[in-house]
UniProtKB/TrEMBL annotation:
Lineage, broadest ranks: Eukaryota, Metazoa, Chordata, Craniata, Vertebrata
Gene encoding the protein: LOC100485044
Protein name listed in UniProt: Uncharacterized protein LOC100485044
Amino acid sequence: MSNMEEIYEITNDIKSFSLNDCPEGNQGYDRVHLQLFGFLGHGKSSFINTCKYVLDDGEYKVYADVSKTQGGNTTARITYPLTDTLTLVDNRGCSKLDDYETGEVFAQLANLLPVDKEVEWSREFGLTERIVRAERLVKSSDFIFPIFVYSVKKGLQPQEVPAIKQMLEFARDVTEIFPVVVLTHKTQGDVNGIERTFKNMGVEWLFSLENFTPEDHLKTRGRHWGVLGFFCEVIKDLQFRLERLGDPDDRREQRKLKVLRFISDREVRMKQEEMERLHRTTIIPNQQPSCTLI
């Protein structure tokens, strides 16, 4: 079989993949949302365009507007169907991974918020209210697969590592899948060092690639195979996970409890920190020492 024939066959296998074909059937799920999350401007939208370009195997097209996401203007969680089963989901990029940004991401990964809606960094219990309002808009039959996107050219600062590690671990607890990490711009920085750092965080899957862009979309065997290999591994993991899942409605309720607990703990912690700040900034008049003249 020639390389082109093999590429054609694997591409067709990916595009025809159905959850019904899994060893234990679909387990009540009918589609997969490949949920991208991460920092602003790290290549999530370019990754979507790259995946569409490879799987469609036609002319390069801009589906996700990279120019807007670079400027921080994309504020919605947007779906990009790849096949009848697989859908990539873009997301508003985080700027600092604080508890409000991560709370929103956790609610998405828990399948508690609808897609194709605006993303808010809700303060206090605003996120809880949105989760309650979204109950009838979200389908338990949507399987959420987490994908963390990080740009090699941005570099990975030591002070970022604890927050990223904590976020990845909570995402694992919510979805029961340790997020796959996609490293973009792999030739524009210390890719080996960043790979080691993520592996030390417990990441099992790392995919390093160079996205196709409007300026650089010359098809090469290496870049093409990199994307196809990513989808092959995702499908293998989906088949593995579906053998071990329970009822979608029950699992969604369990995830909801975890996220609501996170929100509650977050608010308690924020109140405590605010009280401590107020205590530190309270000016207590100093007693002036008395002087006795002799």
